[in-house]
Amino acid sequence: MLRYTLKRALSLGLSLVVASLVIFFVIEVVPGDPASFMLGLNAQPDTIAALRSELGLDVSKLERYLSWVGGMLQGDFGTSYTYRTPVTEMIGDRIWVSLPLALYALTLSTLIAFPAGIYAASRRGKPGDMAVMGATQLGVAVPNFWFAMMLVLIFAINLRWFSAGGFVGWEKGVPAAMKSLTLPAIALALPQSAILARVMRSALLDVLGEDFMRTARAKGLTRRQALMRHGLRNALIPVLTIIGMQFSFLLAGAIIIEQVFFLPGLGRLIFQSISARDLIVVESVVMLLVFLVILVTFLVDLAYAAVDPRLRSRT
Amino acid sequence: MMLSRNILFGGLLCFMVIAAALISFLWTPFDITQMDIPNKLQKPSAAHWFGTDHFGRDIFSMIMVGARTSLAVALVAVGIGMGLGVPLGLWAAANSGSWLDELIMRGNDLIFAFPSLVIAILITAILGPSAVNAILAIGIFNIPVFARLTRAGALPLWQRDFILAARVAGKSRTRISAEHILPNVANLLIVQGTIQFSLGILAEAGLSYVGLGAQPPTPSWGRMLADAQTMVSFAPHLALIPGLAIITSVLGLNLLGDGLRDFLDPKIRVMRS
Bigger pLDDT: B99 or B114? Predict the structure, then answer.
């Protein structure tokens, strides 16, 4: 297990290095100099030069890359060009919207998908299974931001149960904050739960064919008992991998949903920074998201190997 | 042999979308560049089947032209993925175990590790929002999908007798890949192609919704949704209809993909009959 962990950790580190290089390179090809953009059209060349050196834009690309990465390793994500505040602070404010939103959506998606998948698998080929599978086909096809707009139309505009957007903040209390994240979380969760339900069903169906399931039935358990006690536990392994992947997807998918609901999360920060040419913020937020995604994948790999020893010998 | 319900229904939905896109080149009920302010925000009627938008433009016509944008972006993105991914996968399988194989597959893993939406937004934001850049951003993430699939499909084939025979006959690995391996993984690629196509449509809609896809006046479904957002309280049809158009095409392609997988896989076919 230690060998496997080290190997995965090495590949995690390598991925992060390459990811940082790719992000830095992509950002560097942006046309337009942030300093001249900030100062406007009538700026004097020497003012621009002064600002460039203040922002650290006058040193070589390699030095800038190294100072960016070095800073991040110490938790310093640089200073925003436009707001002149540390990027770490800006991220700190907004991650408490994006992260809870992703977790909320993940919880909802799991709560919907597990019963649906188990139900479908236990009624394989029967009308109940067909209905659930049909619903999941539809769920996969629905764009989440459109579903979000429909939720706003129904629950905010017509029924007035929720507000149409915005975030009240955690200082107003957890229930109020959770309430303003509810519609966005549902919008994010629905398409994901459709995928998860399908995975749950097919994982259960795979397990149902195993010898130990026949043994369980032979010793007198009912279909349902055998499914719950022996089937579910074994089917969980592939399902957990997908849940891990979904978390990173939800974190990234929240970017567009945050736009729909005007939530002050990382996604909106990225868009605002892109239009303000605030490159250091874009760079750092994207790097943070990539880091979180790669980290979750790494943790899922480890958890998977801990549960299933056969995987440690492979790769 | 019976075609399954999935293929028929999925095919029908796809046919509707493709037909709308193709017909829009020749004819649309109204000119989509023509504003008609007195008739703005009308509900669906006999004259305007899907109603009109805030400029009085006919939504049915815009949906038809928007189908063109969606299909074109997704199709070219799949083309990029297949065009680069399939040769890479074939190459990796033909030299399996070599450093080349290792390099290609690790590179793939890396692209997979990236949150594709974030990077797509980054790419379009930096290169400037346009349909072409949306295609690039979506296409790049299709490459590893096809490379992996091709390699996985090709690897077991290299152990088969007919490949051995071809090697004994003196054919090069490249030639064997093209002449014998590729036709045998084609089924897999077709099925995955339809799925990536539908994902491409969703991605394009998302990018143009946030303003990073096709730019006005080119109509696109995602763009129409973005425009509709502020008017959803008094003109819900503006938001409803483009969404249904997206769902129709994605659902159609997914059903078609599922149906084709069952149809093209002889093992499942035998089990069914």
Answer: B99
